[in-house]
Amino acid sequence: MNKITWSEHSLDMNLFHVGNQFTRKQIRKIGSLPDNPGPQENWGGIVSLNNVVLIFVTLDKGSAKKEYKYIDYFEDRDFMWESQNSNTLATPSIKRIMNEDNTFLFIRTASKINGITQPFTYIGGIYPVDFDDGVKPLKFQFECLDYQTKRFISSNICMEIRRKANTYNCS
Question: Cα(129)–Cα(53) distance, rounded to whole angstroms?
C-alpha cells in the first residue's frame, strides 16, 4: 500500500463541533479523507493537512515511556503543550503552527481504557501566544479560541485525570 501524503488533502473544520468526541478514523470519514492505508495509524500527534494542522494529545501519559511523558495541560483559557522530542522551530508542521491561523486541538484523557482505544474530544481552534525553544521538547502556550465551551470540557477532563493520576494542575 502507498503511504498517504496528508498535505494533499483538506479538512472542513466546520464539520466538527467543540465538545464532541471522535476517533481518528471518524475524523477522516466525516472529512471525506482517505482511509489509513496500513495496519498502523499514521496520524500521530501532529497531522499537517493542506489547509489545517491538527494536534492530537493524550493527557494521561501514565503508561508511556519516560521520553514520551510530555507535560500537556489546561491553565485557565490556555493550553500548555510540549511538542514531540524531535521537533524544532524548523520542523515544517511547527512552522505552520507558528505562522498560520489554522491549528485545531483534539484531546483525550487516556489512550485506552480497559483495552479500548478512546476517542478524542474536539477542543477547537488554538493559537500560539508563547513558546520556549531553549528546551527539548519545545514548549508552547496556546490560547484556546473556543474558550467558553472548552472551559467545561477541560474541567471535566482535569477532574478525571486528578482522580486517576493526581499529577496535573487544572485551573
Answer: 16
Phi, psi of 67, deg, nearest 5: -70, -10
> pLDDT per residue over 13-40, tens digit each?
999 999 999 999 999 999 998 876 655 5
Average pLDDT over residues 62-83: 90
Closest CA to 161 of 98, 100, 118: 118
- The reported pTM is 0.83
- pLDDT above 80: residue 1: no
Residues 6+ away with beta carbon under 8 Å from 18: 122, 123, 124, 146, 149, 150, 153
If we measure between CA atoms, which residue out of 171, 162, 139 comes closest to residue 60? 162
Give yes or no for a cis peptide into 137 (omega within 30° of 0).
Answer: yes
C-alpha cell belonging to residue 8? 494533499
d(CA 151, CA 136): 29
Going through the chain in order, the beta strands assigned E by DSSP cover 21-22, 46-48, 53-58, 73-75, 78-82, 103-108, 112-113, 116-117, 120-132, 139-144
Question: In this model, does residue 45 exceed pLDDT 50?
Answer: yes
**Residue 52, all three cell numbers:** 489545517
Indicate the pLDDT class of residue 151, thresholds 50, 70 and 90: very low
Q: Contact, 140 vs 83, CB < 8 A? A: yes
